[in-house]
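Duplicate of #3305? Posting structure anyway:
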C-alpha cells in the first residue's frame, strides 16, 4: 500500500524569504525537500530520493527563491550555472561559493556556517543545505569532520541527481 504524501505548506518558507532570512529559508527548503521525498526520518536527502522529487514542488520552491532573491538564488539559477560549466561539479561548487578553490583535490567544501547568507553571496549559492546535509558516516567518508560536507571533497552524485531531476521537470 502506497502512502500518500500530503501537500507541502510553503507559507513559512515564503515568509522567511520575504524577510531575506536566507539561512532559515535554506533550512526550511531542506525540510520541504525531505517531506516531498517522504524522507522525514533522514538527516540527509538520499540521492535515490532526489530522482523522484515531485516536479510541482521543485517548481514552487524555485519560484519562491528566484522571486524573493530577484534571480540571485534558486534551483533554476543553479541549473543554469551548472550547465554553463559543462556539468562540472568542482567548477560549479566554486562558482556558487561552496568551495574556496576549484582545483582537484583541493576543492574542499566550506563549513555551512561560513557561507554568505546575504544577497551579496555568489549567484546560485542557495538553496544549499539539501546538498550539505550528510549522515555522520557519509560526512567522514567524504573527508569531512562529521559536520556535513564541511572540509569534505566535492562529490558530484547528489548534485548530478538534482540537476537531472530539474532537467526532467523542465525547470529552466
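Output from current build:
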Amino acid at each position: 500500500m502506497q502512502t500518500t504524501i500530503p501537500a507541502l505548506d510553503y507559507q513559512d518558507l515564503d515568509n522567511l524569504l520575504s524577510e531575506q532570512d536566507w539561512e532559515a529559508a535554506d533550512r526550511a527548503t531542506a525540510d520541504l525537500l525531505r517531506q516531498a521525498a517522504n524522507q522525514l526520518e533522514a538527516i540527509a536527502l538520499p540521492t535515490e530520493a532526489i530522482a523522484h522529487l515531485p516536479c510541482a514542488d521543485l517548481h514552487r520552491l524555485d519560484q519562491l527563491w528566484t522571486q524573493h532573491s530577484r534571480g540571485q538564488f534558486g534551483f533554476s539559477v543553479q541549473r543554469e550555472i551548472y550547465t554553463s560549466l559543462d556539468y562540472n561539479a568542482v567548477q560549479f561548487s566554486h562558482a556558487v561559493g561552496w568551495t574556496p578553490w576549484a582545483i582537484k583535490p583541493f576543492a574542499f567544501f566550506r563549513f555551512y556556517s561560513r557561507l554568505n547568507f546575504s544577497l551579496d553571496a555568489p549567484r546560485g549559492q542557495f538553496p544549499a543545505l539539501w546538498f550539505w546535509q550528510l549522515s555522520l558516516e557519509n560526512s567522514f567518508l567524504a573527508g569531512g569532520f562529521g559536520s556535513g560536507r564541511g572540509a569534505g571533497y566535492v562529490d558530484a552524485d547528489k548534485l548530478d541527481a538534482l540537476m537531472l531531476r530539474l532537467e526532467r521537470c523542465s525547470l529552466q
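Confirmed duplicate; merging threads. The chain has a mean pLDDT of 89. The chain has one domain: 11-168.
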